[in-house]
Amino acid sequence: MTQISKFRSLLISCGAIATAALGTLVQSASAAEQFNDKTVQFDRDTIVEFQFLSSNNSAQSTFGVLNLATNEKTPLISEARAQDKPGKIYTGTAGKSVRKPFAEFTFKSGTPYTLYLESTVKGKGTTTVYSVPDKNGGSQLAKFNNDATALGTQGVKIGWNDGISGKGSDFNQFMVIAGGGVGCPCKASPMLTTPIAPEVPPTKNNAPSGRG
């Protein structure tokens, strides 16, 4: 049976992650596996969860994965509109411009991938940029703040320049985080706010009221 690693965003308490049906705690990827602007490739089937963080551009974008072996594109996270409110402020946030901020993708063992960002402005024209500079004519349009070894701990933030808005040095026009989870000992990812408290078993003192 194929072994699958899973790097998932930490949104609940460490104890809940350990017992969740989604799987046990994950270890960081090996140094040989790659998750950067050169390529994305793993030595075993690996599920990575992505979370939309924010956008700051005039374009309406879709983030996804391109299989470099087959040329198959898989869209993962899409903006329903370019920004939260029409106007000169181009901020987009989860729940407003992006209705479904989470997605996951299974990277097949030994297969090279690149991430992509496809954008349009007011429904006109489509520009696609890639995390691999070679596919952008040599231009770096995606910046990774970490590598594959961080997928199982703090995660990897990826900032994009959509090739349409702002300056060439901007990497805040569309931002996602890949992975992010727990290590040993348990450490919260940057996304964790207040952990969900464990459920207290009913006792004489806290049992729900009712007939019986």
Give a verbal description of the structure:
With 212 residues, the chain is mainly β. 3% of the residues lie in helices and 33% in strands. The protein is built from 1 helix and 13 strands. The chain has one helix spanning 14-19, and strands at residues 5-7, 34-35, 40-41, 46-56, 60-67, 73-78, 91-92, 102-107, 113-121, 124-130, 142-144, 156-160, 174-178. The strands form 3 sheets. Strands 1, 4, 7, 8, 11, 12 and 13 form a 7-stranded mixed β-sheet that branches. Strands 6-5-9-10 form a 4-stranded antiparallel β-sheet, with no helix packed on it.
Secondary-structure topology with pairs:
Layout lengths: L4 E3 L6 H6 L14 E2 L4 E2 L4 E11 L3 E8 L5 E6 L12 E2 L9 E6 L5 E9 L2 E7 L11 E3 L11 E5 L13 E5 L34
Parallel strand pairs: 1-4
Antiparallel strand pairs: 2-3, 4-7, 4-8, 4-13, 5-6, 5-9, 9-10, 11-12, 12-13
What is the end-to-end distance?
50 Å
SSE order in H/E notation? EHEEEEEEEEEEEE
Rounded average pLDDT: 78
- Counting DSSP E segments of at least 2 residues, the number of strands comes to 13
List keywords for this structure.
single chain; 212 residues; mainly beta; 7-stranded mixed β-sheet; 4-stranded antiparallel β-sheet; 1 helix; 33% strand
Structure summary:
This protein is an all-beta fold.
